[in-house]
Amino acid sequence: MKDTISQAEPVIVARDLNLVFQTNDGPVQALKDVNLTINRGDFVSFIGPSGCGKTTFLRAIAALEHPTGGTLTVNGMTPDEARKSRAYGYVFQAAGLYPWRTIAGNIRLPLEIMGFPRSEQDDRVARVLDLVELSGFGKKFPWQLSGGMQQRASIARALAFDADILLMDEPFGALDEIVRDRLNEELLKLWDRTGKTIGFVTHSIPEAVYLSTKIVVMSPRPGRITDVIDSPLPRERPLDIRDSRDFIEIAHRVREGLRAGHGDEV
Amino acid sequence: MRSLGPVLVVLAAICALWYLAAIWMNAAWVNDQAAREGREVFLVDLVTETLMQERPVLPAPHQVAKGLYDGVFGQAVTSKRSLVYHGWVTLSATLLGFAIGSAAGILLAVGIVYNRAMDLSVMPWAIASQTIPILAIAPMIIVVLNSLGITGIVPKAIISAYLSFFPVVVGMVKGLRSPDAMQLDQMRTWNASGMQTLGKLRLPASMPYLFASLKVGVAASLVGTIVGELPTGAVAGLGSRLLSGSYYGQTIQIWAALFAAALLAASLVALIGGLERVTLKRMGLAR
């Protein structure tokens, strides 16, 4: 797939994006003057402390939040149009599988909602189960699977309807580090095979550096972008790349960016 | 089975208290009779005579058990003295009322969850409806429906539905709102319609709440039916057995009918409990 990726074709474009929440304690500026271009095939991580607006930005792309200023386009459309044209799959922090549906039934859920024909549903379910290495688990119920497997099933569900964009909001945040490493590795393979554009929110510096082609460092009050790092790491990334010089340098720059954004509050 | 012991102890204690109460409450009549006949009452006579009266103030447990047994097994089921006959009359109206009440409750709950105007306006009326004493309103419902030419079990079923829809509304509103913000956002990312969100997420998620309220609702249904039978002139049904028993001072008949009603209610609740266990286990929602 990667050979067909054309250079620098913008998919998600934010220009002077502002988002203000009206709360009982007065207005809260969740995003301030955010400018960012995400190209087709990018793996973009958003990293920053709580309240920096990284999740809000991802939700704005998904049309789950509505910006109060500036422009945001997804595939050249407004986020809401993009949502209606099934431009993205969204993976939440919790797997959110329905306990009354099997794993295959859960993955079939968005396909049923979108009205895919029955035979095609079965094909697609089988294909994405294979993609996340859960073939043979389709007939199991969620409680029969470990947390990591459940999260893989939820990724499969987000992939089932072939959206070009995958938005992931701390998908591995609740998992232990060993499982997390393994899923990160698998996610990279999956990204390489499918050529999707991925937006990935995380708290973890190593996770962000390991996964991304572009790292967006954000800071809170008001939520804004403090640094955008284009990673020089190659597409092929074995786990031990984390001991390489490049990796450590990028991680250092991310850490510096986080510290600068935080001011003297730390 | 370990819990059987305590249960039996409590049951025995209740029976013992009941016997003591029966002796105490029926003693006045025994003493009266004895005084009239000019004989003295010893403790043994007091106990035996208070527990074997034909129309005691408080029948003893064995008398009620005998009354219940005779009513259920001692008569042809078509007899007007059979508790099976009266029980069936009450049960059929209860089931019809329960079906109407549950359906109305579920529909109202869906309306409340999906329509803001209904959310603001229906619940206060539903609560107000339950504050009106059903005993006061039941005869009016019967009279009004009779004048419209509606007779038979339907008027009773409507009173029964009136009592049973409320717990279902309250439970289902809570149940339909039980999916969290993340699950609803997820539906939005798939551009699901309101009907799809209802059918695929809200309704399945509300099942534990539905069964909990159905259990309350079915018991309320039975009470509603019995109340509905009281002003019909005691034609048939457990309610009529209660009423005719009180007309003629047949306390044993009243208590037997009461226990028949209690057994009926317990069976209905147990039946729904069984359905609940099977359904929730199959849905992976069992606790």
UniProtKB/TrEMBL annotation, chain A:
Origin superkingdom: Bacteria
The UniProt record lists the keyword ATP-binding: yes
Keyword tags: ATP-binding, Nucleotide-binding, Transport
GO molecular function: ATP binding
InterPro entries referenced in this protein's UniProt entry, alphabetically: AAA+_ATPase, ABC_transporter-like_ATP-bd, ABC_transporter-like_CS, ABC_transporter_ATP-bind, P-loop_NTPase
ABC transporter domain mapped to chain residues: 14-241
Record's signal peptide: none
Family, per entry: Belongs to the ABC transporter superfamily.
Listed name of the protein: ABC transporter ATP-binding protein
Organism in which the protein naturally occurs: Gemmobacter denitrificans
Native organism taxonomy: Bacteria, Pseudomonadati, Pseudomonadota, Alphaproteobacteria, Rhodobacterales
From TrEMBL, chain B:
Transmembrane segments: 7-29, 88-113, 125-145, 157-176, 209-232, 252-275
InterPro entries per the UniProt record, alphabetical: MetI-like (IPR000515), MetI-like_sf (IPR035906)
Membrane topology: Multi-pass membrane protein
SUPFAM superfamilies with a match to the protein in the record: MetI-like (SSF161098)
Protein name as it appears in the record: ABC transporter permease
Keyword presence, Calcium: no
PROSITE patterns named among the record's database cross-references: ABC_TM1
Organism: Gemmobacter denitrificans
